[in-house]
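Reagents: none. Just compute today. 4Fe-4S ferredoxin-type domain-containing protein.
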Amino acid sequence: MNDKKYYSFSKELLPKLFNLISKEYTIIGPVDKDRKTVFKHVESYDQLKLKYTRTILPPKKFLQPPHEELMHFKYEDNKVEVVEVLPQEKIAFFCIHPCDANALIVLDKIYSENYEDNYYFSRRRNMLTVVLDCLEGDEYCFCESVGADKPWPGSYDLYITPLELKEVAITPGSSKGEKLVRELGLKETSPPKITRKKNTQKLPVKDIEALAEKMESPAWEVEAKPCLSCGTCTQVCPTCTCFDVMDLFKIPLKSGVRFRTWDSCIYSNFTKVAGGIIFRENKVDRFKHRYYHKFVFIKNRYGIYGCVGCGRCIEECVRKINLVEVIKRVAKS
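Predicted 3D structure written out:
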């Protein structure tokens, strides 16, 4: 959609929008859990927590689940039968933030290049996304530095401006969004003025660009030292896509299930191949590979960063490694 139109909206209309969407979709939204916020299936608008900064895990977990069956197979009467398991459920992300919505665009590019991932896109094409903008982040956010503080084209079906504004507006980003606007009977309005609070975490573009020449910098040895290779940063990341595929056979080995699980390039055995060879056995190599993948390789390949600045990796790291500060120090090394 090229011509963005805004319509008058209010917080009081959110329950009505929720109910309209719930007629056709299973809704996933932010809820309270143990003093934190998580995304989960919600059946009632009252379950939602709309004032939040980030969830523990990103929307990715519903598009590429941590453990996912891909196909069932069996050998019977000298024939092999394979049945692919393609999910058909229609899900709607309700009130996710721009950074998480933009992360879906990164995933789309990765999962559609050369070979389209049927399992990912069977969910993605049945999906509806309602983005709720936020006026400010916290001490971990750096979405502004990577251009992910505003929703990118194609990242949403409906975009709602921050509810703190005096005049709230909603804009459709697809035909599905336009249909919902018509059903709500909203009136067109002028684009609202949004003044966001600047991120406290700032990652200068010049420092990101400097990484390309710093692959062999001794600074990486210093920066990687605190890392435990636990993989927490990759598990909470909204754009990490590493997975492993396994076959589970049933006795007497004539049937089984193929499934995939989340993996991590931070793990020492991620690049292990036959013969026991590990291509990135050194922890430093694994540590810096993640940075180059996010900020150099993906940028060169798709024209966007592989990081949306959500701040999850900084907040959840058990050693409190700050990705932003690491890049700054390496850039200056």
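The chain has a mean pLDDT of 95.
Action item: order primers for follow-up constructs.
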